[in-house]
Amino acid sequence: MSATVEFAKMNGLGNNILVVDMRGRADKVTPAAAIALNAVPDTQFDQIMAIHDPKAAGTDAWIDILNSDGSKAQACGNGTRCVVQALASETGKKVFTFQTVAGILNAVEHDDGTISVDMGKPVFAWDKIPLAEEFHDTSRIELQIGPIDNPVLHSPSVASMGNPHAIFWIDRDPMSFDLGRFGPLLENHPMFPERANITLAQVTSPSSITTRTWERGAGLTLACGSAACATAVSAVRTGRTGREVAVKVASSPNQGVLNIEWREGDGHVIMTGPAEWEWSGTLDPSTGAWSRDAAPGAEAR
Q1: Region labeled Disordered — which residues (predicted)?
Q2: Which site in 45, 125, 137, 218 is 20 to 30 Å from 166, CA atoms measured?
Q3: Per-residue pLDDT tens for 146-160?
Q4: Domain 5-120+276-292 homologous superfamily, CATH
Q5: What is the CATH code of the structural domain delimited by 144-267?
Q6: DSSP code per residue over 198-242
C-alpha cells in the first residue's frame, strides 16, 4: 500500500478544510498526522474530512472527521459541502449520501454551485447534548462568564447537531467580544462533559443572524456550519426568528452567508452555502508529511 494519499485544501466560507481520499485503504488519518498538518501554515485546518469506502448499503462514503487538535468530530457542515464539491467534480454526480458517526447525511450540489446538506434533526434533551446537569428547558440554561452582577455572556441556548453547541445571544457585533479569551473557558466548562462549540449570535432581523464561533477542538474559526444550524434552530425555539434564516458569519471572508431552513414537516435542518477548492497535494496519513501538486517553488514538508 502506498504511503501517500491525495488530498485537497478547501474552505467553506473560510472554514479551512482538508479533504483526504482514504478510499481503498484500511488505515486512517492519525491524530499525530492531523497535529503535524495543522502546525504548518499552508496546511492549517479546522477539520479534516477523510473519505473512506462506504460501510452501509446505499451510501457513497464513510466520512471520518478530525479536528485540528487531533480529536474526533461528529459533524462538520462546511466540511461536508467541501466533500460534495470534490466528489461532484470527480464523478459528475450531484446527489450524495454520506455516513458519519453522527448518522446519515444527504447532500446535493445545485446548478449555481451552492451545496445543500441535510444536517438531520437537532437534539435538545439535556442528557443527549450532553450537559452535566439536568435542564428541563435547554433553550436557556444557567451559565455565565464575567461578574455575577454584570456578566459578559449569560443564559445560552444549547443544542446538538451531532456535536454539542452553546449559543450566547448578544446585542452587538460578535467581533467586539474577546472570544479568543472566553472561548477556551466555555468550551471546557464542566457543564459540557464532551466540551462544546461556543457561538456568539446577534439577531439582526426576523430572518437574519450574525455569528462568530469558537469551535471545539479547533479554536477560533472563520466559519462553522453546524454552529450556524444550531443557532438557527435555537433562534426559532426562543422566538427570535422564523424557520428560514440567513446566518452571516462575521469572521469569514466577506462575511459570507449560510442559508438555514429548519423544516416544519420532518424537523430536519437544511444548510445551503458555497465551497471553494484552493489546491491539491499528497500526504502520508500516518505522519502528516505532505507535498503540493504542481505548485512552483513548493517543497515537500
Answers
A1: 282-301
A2: 45
A3: 898 899 999 999 999
A4: Diaminopimelate Epimerase; Chain A, domain 1 (3.10.310.10)
A5: 3.10.310.10
A6: EEEEEEEETTEEEEEEEETTTEEES--HHHHHHHHHHHHHTTSS-
